[in-house]
Specification:
The chain has about 210 residues and is an alpha+beta fold. Helix content is about 15%, strand content about 30%.
């Protein structure tokens, strides 16, 4: 008998949001429709100059913000095994016109990052997640497995929410469609809680 186990896996949380209110989509589209509110990124894609979309555009009573918080709480409980204490910090919009991509990067000063897709097609460019380990010796392979793949591609649909560790490097493939891909990204951190263990002198009030 042979048993193969994956040790210390990286979690990718994917959810489909079913009831996004049209009024909230309309608010988000006001930034898309005004290019003066964009800033150019590497690889000629764009991000919004507004980097607190949840706070300044949608507000804490927003159905969408509360729905995303529900999934962040779920991530905390089911993946981190923690009492939910993560809250969104910065949040911004990404615009990928045809022919643009997004460079490889990770998110500093954040625990879990997320992205919600408002407008995308199968040809708009996959979200590419990159393996953390780097091996200096690499042989040719005869099969792709979950153990030897260096990247993992996600082809999201509209209203797909994805959560992942902020330290995980990721990029976006070139947009081969005729439409601009629109997504909302955000970071999280602990707020109004004590992390660690005060008894063992690792407590930290945040």
């Amino acid at each position: 008998m042979v048993e193969i186990k994956g040790l210390f896996p990286t979690a990718l949380y994917v959810a489909e949001l079913k009831n996004i209110m049209p009024s909230e989509i309309k608010k988000i589209m006001t930034i898309y429709e005004d290019k003066d509110k964009w800033k150019t990124n590497i690889n000629n894609n764009f991000t919004s100059k507004e980097v607190y979309v949840f706070d300044n555009l949608l507000g804490n009573k927003s159905f969408l913000v509360n729905e995303i918080q529900h999934h962040i709480n779920n991530y905390c409980e089911k993946i981190l095994g923690e009492k939910p204490a993560l809250k969104p910090t910065q949040s911004w919009l990404n615009f990928n016109p045809p022919g643009t991509s997004h460079h490889k990067h990770c998110h500093g000063n954040s625990i879990v990052s997320g992205v919600l897709y408002f407008k995308t097609t199968p040809k708009s460019g996959a979200l590419v997640l990159h393996k953390r380990e780097f091996f200096t010796i690499k042989n040719s392979t005869i099969n792709n497995t979950t153990f030897n793949n260096d990247i993992y591609r996600v082809f999201p649909k509209e209203h797909t929410l994805i959560l992942f560790p902020s330290s995980l490097e990721h990029s976006v493939d070139n947009n081969e469609s005729d439409e601009t891909r629109i997504s909302l990204a955000f970071n999280t951190f602990y707020r109004d809680t004590i992390i660690g263990d005060e008894f063992n002198l690792t407590g930290l009030k945040v």
